[in-house]
Amino acid sequence: MKKKHLHKTIKELRAELEKTQPADDHVRDHIQRLLLEIDMLSGEAEDIPLHRYQQFLERLKESLQHFEASHLPLTLAVGRVIDALSNMGI
How far is CA 2 from CA 32, 35, 71, in A? Predict the structure, then answer.
């Protein structure tokens, strides 16, 4: 059940990332990298290794620094995914 919630939350993050139109090229590149990683995670089998989620979690934590000043909805979406991963014990 937790994985299902996580995947739903990641889909919501993806939608929020796609809506975001940052003026800063660095933030835009960061968003593109996150979208690529989400697509890679989505394309993997249901049994995604724990280390893949841990790597994704680290990048999400880094993302908060990029988004919190100018992209509040995106910051909140990233936070929800971080919480979902934490609830899974990651």
Answer: 26, 22, 27
Q: How many domains does the chain have?
A: 1
Give the helix ranges, DSSP H, for the chain.
2-19, 25-43, 50-67, 72-87
Residue 12: give the domain boundaries.
Answer: 2-87
Element at 21 (helix H, strand E):
none
Residue 23 DSSP SS3 = coil
CA 30, CA 44: separation in Å to the nearest integer?
21
* 42 vs 17: CA distance, rounded Å: 15
Q: Which two tokens stand for residue 49?
A: 């290794």
Q: In terms of pLDDT, which residue wins out, 42 or 89?
A: 89
Full-model pTM = 0.78
Cβ contacts of residue 7 below 8 Å, gap of 6+? Answer: 42
| Residue whose C-alpha is closest to residue 38's, from 22, 55, 26, 21 | 55
